[in-house]
Amino acid sequence: MGRIDGCLQRSRHRVPALRARSSRLSEQGQAEGVQSSETQNLGEGVLYTCALRPGLVYGAGKDEPLLRALSWMGWGLNRVTLRGLPEAKSDMIFFQNLIDATVLAGTQLAEGAAGAQAGGAGWSTRKGPACSGQSYCVTDGQRGGGDGDGGGVQPGGLQAFMDGVLEGLDFTTSKVLRLPVFFALAIAWAMELVCKMKLTEAPPSITRSEVRKLVENRCSDIERARKDLGYEPRVDRNTALRTIVEDLKRDGWGRHTLLVPGLGYWICIPLGIWLNAVAAFKALCPAFLAPVQRFSLYIHLAVFRKLWIVRLVCVLAILAHVLEGWYAFVRAKRAGHGDTAPRWLIQTLILGYPSTRLVMRLLS
Predict the structure, then answer these.
(1) For 158, which of 22, 84, 139, 280 is 20 to 30 Å away at the CA?
(2) Rounded to whole angstroms, how far apart are CA atoms 194 and 7?
């Protein structure tokens, strides 16, 4: 059992390398599958194959990249984008469309293999299925410019897709910050390094290869799949988005409520902590507020008698706010309020118990 656990831990830290290797193996496997078409199968018949090259597949159960992106919504990721990402076009395919394409390809191969030997339906001049040995791009129906007939609708980008999901979940999608790509690459590199150093068991939230793919243009033409396989996307992008949003809402995703204490707490509690810190350590007090510091120290000494007690009270008060903030953050995350958990953390760090009481009331 210990050997199995060790293998699992090592595999978690090799996620970036495994992703890149799996991509290379996928390309190699498609090429070998196409090359093996129309080969003899141990004297029992002829093997006919073709390859499907889908775009980015989404909507199939738990979309890990989408869920990882949504987990960062509370930190304002919905208001941030990468330079070049809004303009980048990317082929995508809903999983139901991919299933249809797979069934159609298998049907064409099977019908062709079972057809008459002399030019039956679905056969080419090579006396085999017309799609045998071919590779077909399949997407949600958009055509890539410049590689087919030049017409059609250009594929949408990942930014537009993600914004559509966020709007369906009632998040704001207007951008206030555009980060350079090298900044995102540096963050991804740091995450991969933390994973490689085994400082955490979780895989990196994003990798450098994923960042590069975000800003690359990937456009394909599906006209050959339409002609040879009879493929036509059955689910359009808007319908797919609605399906994904409904599934996410059913799983508890969406914009949640943040309860905010009254204005009096926002004035009295930070002011009280500041006066305590000023009296205990003469901190955060400019020279022109020296009379305030002397008055605060006088009041605190009148109550607590000793300066070390005043300092202890200040440290304990700050520590209590930190612990309450962490408790509010963890409580909100575990309850599925990941989008508001960071704001619960900041609010509780500032206000302490009044905010903790609200998060307990909301999530009880």
Answers:
(1) 22
(2) 18
